[in-house]
Design the sequence.
């Protein structure tokens, strides 16, 4: 959970967040490229979550596995929900939706890391 | 407002524009507050029952605010208005109490210390919500 994949996801999300917030501040609706970028980030998050789920089966588990699973479901659903809402809102507020989502995603990944650190079993 | 955006029509729905951003943020808090309460109540309820019941209550308030924004119309507006008002009172009361008397709040809720654990968003959110609902009055 603490690998380069998480770091890459966090950095990508923060860079996109800065870009989307700038777009919202400049009163621009999400462009096609913006929406594709959101989907690409969602795909990266999906890979991260799949890796984390596979990790659950190799011995060490977070001691709070239910919470960990809850966060995994939320994390993987997050990008697509933001994408859906942004598609509905072709105004500056659509850009703000994507910006907010890209700010919350790193928090979710950090929380996943925190929960994963407390493990039971052999690590 | 720059010239690219036409003025927002008076009868535009509550759940569009900034309302859609609020919908997302309220949705996030509805989920996080109620999931947190669920975990707290199901695993160690006896440690701090008051704080955990407050977590659950906060979760319900966020859920009803989200629903109010989502359904819109006169009824949705009323639901959102009541929820945001309760939320504002809740975050101010619990924030003040948790600072004045930490003994009653051994474990955190979304509203403890004015929502400092959530970047103070719970403190700012009801003001934005109420402003948005007020601006959207019929």
Sequence:
């Amino acid at each position: 959970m603490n690998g380069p994949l998480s770091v890459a996801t966090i950095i990508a999300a923060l860079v996109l967040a800065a870009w989307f917030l700038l777009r919202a501040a400049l009163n621009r609706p999400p462009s096609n490229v913006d929406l594709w970028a959101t989907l690409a980030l969602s795909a990266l998050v999906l890979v991260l979550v799949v890796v984390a789920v596979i990790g659950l089966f190799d011995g060490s588990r977070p001691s709070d596995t239910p919470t960990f699973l809850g966060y995994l479901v939320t994390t993987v659903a997050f990008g697509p929900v933001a994408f859906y809402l942004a598609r509905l809102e072709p105004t500056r507020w659509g850009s703000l939706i994507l910006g907010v989502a890209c700010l919350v995603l790193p928090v979710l990944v950090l929380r996943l890391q925190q929960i994963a650190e407390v493990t039971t079993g052999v690590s | 407002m720059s010239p690219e955006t036409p003025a927002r029509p008076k009868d535009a729905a509550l759940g569009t524009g900034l309302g859609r951003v609020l919908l997302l943020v309220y949705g996030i808090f509805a989920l996080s507050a109620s999931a947190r309460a669920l975990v707290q109540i199901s695993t160690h309820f006896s440690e701090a029952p008051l704080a955990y019941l407050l977590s659950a209550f906060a979760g319900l308030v966020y859920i009803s605010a989200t629903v109010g924004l989502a359904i819109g119309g006169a009824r949705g507006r009323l639901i959102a208005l009541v929820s945001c008002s309760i939320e504002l009172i809740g975050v101010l009361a619990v924030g003040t109490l948790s600072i004045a008397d930490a003994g009653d709040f051994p474990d955190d809720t979304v509203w403890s210390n004015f929502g400092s654990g959530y970047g103070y968003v719970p403190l700012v959110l009801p003001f934005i919500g109420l402003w948005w609902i007020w601006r959207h009055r019929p």
Summary: The first strand of chain A starts at residue 61 and ends at 62. The beta strands of chain A are 61-62, 119-120.
